[in-house]
Amino acid sequence: MHVAQFEDRSGPFVGIREGKKWINYGKAERVMYMLRHGVVAAGTETIEDLFARGLFEPALFREVLGYIRRERLERFVSASRDARLVAPLRSPRKIIALGLNYALHAKEGALPVPDEPIIFMKAGSSVIGPDEPVRLPRGMGRMDHEVELAVVIGRKAVAVREKDAWGHVAGYTICNDISARDIQTADLGKKHPWFRSKSFDTFTPLGPWIVTADEIRPPVHLDLECRVNGRIRQKANTRDLIFGIAEVISWISRTITLDPGDVISTGTPEGIGPVKGGDLIDCRIQGIGELRNPVRWR
Predict the structure, then answer these.
(1) Which residue ranges make up each domain of the chain?
(2) Number of other CB atoms surrounding residue 36 within 10 Å
(3) Is the Cα dihedral 268, 144, 207, 232 positive or negative?
(4) Against a cut of 0.85, is the pTM above it?
(5) Residue among 207, 9, 218 at smallest CA distance from 92
(6) CA 286 → CA 78, 173, 283, distances in Å?
(7) Block means of pLDDT (10 residues each) for the chain, length 298 residues?
(8) Residue 129: how many CB atoms within 10 A of its CB?
(9) In sequence order, what are the beta bridge partners of 119?
(10) 95-297 sits in which CATH class?
(11) Measured between alpha carbons, how far is 112 from 109 in angstroms, rounded to an integer?
């Protein structure tokens, strides 16, 4: 099931894909509740609302969509024509990213393959959605694209066992971990963290939507690629991850509580390269879709 976030003239709303249409899920909730109970109830406005209320559940989505379908109400709750797709999570509480999680990526950076996960944080304020421009600051040196499979947490995870980790996954989306490479290299030389080089405004394109975990079952072996101006730069499969999804969730949750709506970006494969103003980055992951972002100079 594809769960997206939109904005139109009335504000944000959650969209659920129904065939070739998008249903305004909050409006559908309100219609169903009114017809069943005769009173108006507050509906869901954002995906963050769903996570906060513990209601990001495919079974609930199916119940609402099934009711709307049976009552032939789709035309009343379909997404408006002026709706604009935005990032599925506008400012996640935590974005935890993996460094050097593909062996060939470590090799291209002349770095050793890690013997345990390398994690770093990205600022939630760096998130943008599909078709929004990545804005590169001038004078900052090389800045790179990095296509990554992102895992969205659905249930609180504290010291979970690896075999139980899959039960904490809400779904999957695409992350483009834009990196200010020269700044990262300078910070590493000073033994400073990577946070600054990864967290500039607009440096975390995310989307285009969340595909629920019941649609992509373990093992999550998905083809991924990144194209710049139509030319393939990165091409790999998530089966090549050094540390797999369940292992990473278990490892992180030993020391850091993972909350619903948190994002884990699982690392990028080999083929990273610079981008500049005027470029178009197209990140694709099998079973999820495409995340396209133009690049502009600030």
Answers:
(1) 2-86, 95-297
(2) 10
(3) negative
(4) yes
(5) 207
(6) 26, 11, 10
(7) 95 94 94 80 84 95 95 94 96 96 85 92 98 96 98 98 98 98 92 94 98 96 98 98 98 98 97 97 98 97
(8) 23
(9) 98
(10) alpha beta
(11) 9
